[in-house]
Amino acid sequence: MNGNLLKKFVYLIFHFFFITSAYADAVYDPATGTITLSHVLAGDGSSKTESIYATNVQITPGAILSLGKAWPPYIHPSPWPSEVDFYDIAAQELKISYIRTADGSIELNDVVLKVDAVSGVGFSESIAPGIADYKFRYVLDDSLPSEWRNEFEQIMNNLHRDIPIYAKSDWYSMPIFAWKSDAERPLPFVSGGCICGGGEGGHFRWMSLEIPASEFEYNQIHRYSIVPHEYFHVYQLSHADLPVKWLMEGPAATLESIYVQENYGINYFSSAQGPGLSEQVRENTASYESYSASGGEADINYSGSVFMTLVLGAELQKQDLSEAEAYRKILQDFFLAGPTLENWEAKFLEVFSISVDSFYSAVKTYELSYDAVLPSVDLKLSQIFSN
Ligand SMILES: [Zn+2]
Fold first, then answer.
1. Where are the alpha helices (DSSP H) in 275-322?
2. How far out from the chain centre does Cα 122 lie?
3. Residue 301 Cα, ligand 1 centroid: separation in angstroms?
4. I want to staple 298 with a disulfide (CB 3.0 to 4.6 A). Which of 16, 123, 279, 280 is the partner?
5. Tell me, what's the pLDDT at 304?
6. Helix, strand, or coil here: 324?
7. What phi and psi values does residue 346 have, to the nearest 5 degrees?
8. What percent of the chain is modeled with pLDDT above 70?
9. What Å distances lie between residue 217 and 150, 209, 212, 229, CA to CA?
10. Residues 86/45, Cβ–Cβ less than 8 Å
């Protein structure tokens, strides 16, 4: 957004070249007063301007604005990947995820500071406006066949292209751990399929893709479909903080099935999600707002949450929206509206032009089946998501 600041930063990056060591993460050298950043992303938090990704950047720090969290006071051991730091071009602030001195005598998380000068850079690349600049850091375990790892990268490229996630100062990078379930976990606190955080993992967030060995044995498409599902949670979280189960899991599992239909020609809605439908979704629709109230049998493979999402798609098409427009409202516009626990019912009405109560009443009028509400087999993510 501020072209002059961007140019200044680019100028600094390109006009001072030094050879730097390949340090992991950010290292502060008290002797020279410099900080070496292993990876840094510079952007203004919008999708409208160029961002820059660079490695081995040496800076002279200016004013320290905050010293971040004290716990955990360390970075996780390997294979936790090197942190990416974020230079907010709009605010002209550098946020360092984890910084230490070479001897480990000082370790801090989330330091925010001004930059006086950039004195060196290893590699840098420009990320054009409109191209996703959120940085996932892949940690793909050797227990996974190379076929899976290649397909994973292809899926991520497709998702970045069709559903771009943009970096901003509090949301710019996440590790992805993937391994086969019969191998050892990458780290003791990483397990399952989720966007996880907390516990022994501290304040970091990560994507965990524990791929059941049986899914390879039986050639199950879920070994791939979990990737768009979890990716979409990152997209949702980059816009919304919404602990309403069906509105988080329903769209994620629906997107998962649309991806699978588009890329593998498999109707995952009917083969994996629909069969688990429970009458509870019509008898107590509101219970699907809560993970605990709609757990177990009520929402196997998110069958009920997906049903509600598909019914919403059908109801929106009654408002003279095309199918792609209806799913754009559900998968994109609703999250861009920034729903929270406090305002989500108002946002729901605003985006969908139907109240939550009216919608729940409508759900009860549908047959307990996906048959009448399935999206077209030729519906594509690129038609749904648009700038
Ligand atoms: Zn999920």
1. 280-283, 303-317
2. 27
3. 9
4. 280
5. 98
6. helix
7. -70, -40
8. 92
9. 18, 17, 9, 21
10. no
Q: Cα of 88 to ligand 1 centre, how many Å?
A: 30
Pairing of strands 173-180, 135-140: parallel
C-alpha 106 – ligand 1 centre gap (Å): 38
What size, in residues, is the chain? 387
- What's the gap in Å between 271 CA and the centre of ligand 1? 18
The values of phi and psi at residue 152, to 5°, are -55, -50
Q: Is 7 left (phi over 0), alpha (psi -120 to 50) or beta?
A: alpha
Q: What is the 229 CA–ligand 1 centroid distance (Å)?
A: 6
Å from CA of 245 to ligand 1 middle? 9
Ligand 1 center to residue 28 CA distance, Å? 39
- pLDDT category of residue 70 using cuts at 50, 70 and 90: low
**Angle (nearest 5°) at CA 170 between 251 and 257:** 15
Separation of 154 CA from ligand 1 center, angstroms? 21
Mind listing the pLDDT tens digit for each residue in 32-63? 999 999 999 999 999 999 999 999 999 999 99
What six digits make up the tokens of 119?
């004195």
Q: What secondary structure letter does DSSP report for 295?
A: -
- The DSSP bridge pattern shows strands 51-66 and 135-140 to be unpaired
For ligand 1, the distance from its centroid to the CA atom of residue 251, given in whole angstroms, is: 9
Quick: pLDDT tens for 133-170. Answer: 999 999 999 999 999 999 999 999 999 999 999 999 88
Tokens of 216: 């390879």
Q: Alpha-carbon torsion 129, 132, 137, 141, what sign?
A: negative
- CA neighbor of 257 nearest in space, from 310, 210, 182: 310
Where are the chain's structural domains? 3-127, 134-237, 240-387
Output the pTM of the full model. Answer: 0.92
Angle among Cα 118, 123, 129 to the nearest 5 degrees reads 85
pLDDT tens digits for 226-238?
999 999 999 999 9
User: Which tokens sit at 104?
Assistant: 């480990």
* Sign of the C-alpha dihedral computed for residues 351, 357, 360 and 366 taken in this order: negative
pLDDT band at 25 (very low <50, low <70, confident <90, very high): confident
